[in-house]
Amino acid sequence: SFDCGLRISELRNLEVKHLNGDRLTIFGKGRKRRYVYLCPEAKARLRRWIKRNQPHDYFWPSVVNPKQPLATCTLRAYMRQAFLRVGFPTFALMIFDILTLLILSY
Questions:
Q1: DSSP letter for each residue of 12-75
Q2: What is the CA radius of gyration of the chain?
Q3: pLDDT tens by residue, 47-73
Q4: Which of 1, 64, 67, 93 could bridge across to 39 with cysteines, CB 3.0–4.6 Å?
């Protein structure tokens, strides 16, 4: 796995349909598209999480309106809690670590 520089807005807007085989399609600023490749372990964990949680649209939907993504400030708070819980003092982690932390702590 590698550091992909995923922005919080890109993370919050991830939809299940963006997972294609061994990569995620990320839409950044200006809806620019790029791809993030997942290592086999990250892909397997993500697939298990999807099977268990059965998200319909967004990986992290809003509690108020599941058709919308979770608010950025709420996702950031979840991330901060997960990072602190496992001993990481910073958000500068690889995509595998971010997805693993969020999937395990959601």
A1: HT-BGGGEETTEEEEE-GGG-EEEEEPPHHHHHHHHHHHHHH--SSBSSB-SS-TTSBPPHHHH
A2: 13
A3: 888 898 888 899 889 989 989 999 988
A4: 1
Alpha-carbon distance of 1 to 18, in angstroms, equals 18
Task: Say which residue, 14 or 81, is predicted with more confidence.
Answer: 14
Q: Which tokens is 40 given?
A: 């086999």
C-alpha to C-alpha distances, 76 to 1, 8, 25, 45, 88, nearest whole angstrom: 22, 7, 21, 21, 14
Question: Which pairing describes strands 19-20 and 33-37: parallel, antiparallel, or unpaired?
Answer: unpaired
Closest CA to 39 of 100, 105, 85, 83: 100
Give dist(CA 48, CA 96) in Å, integer: 14
Is it the case that residue 2 has pLDDT exceeding 60?
A: no
The tokens for 89 are: 């003092």
Residue of 40, 2, 34 whose CA lies nearest to 21: 40
Q: Could you give the CA distance from residue 73 to residue 60 in angstroms, rounded to a whole number?
A: 12
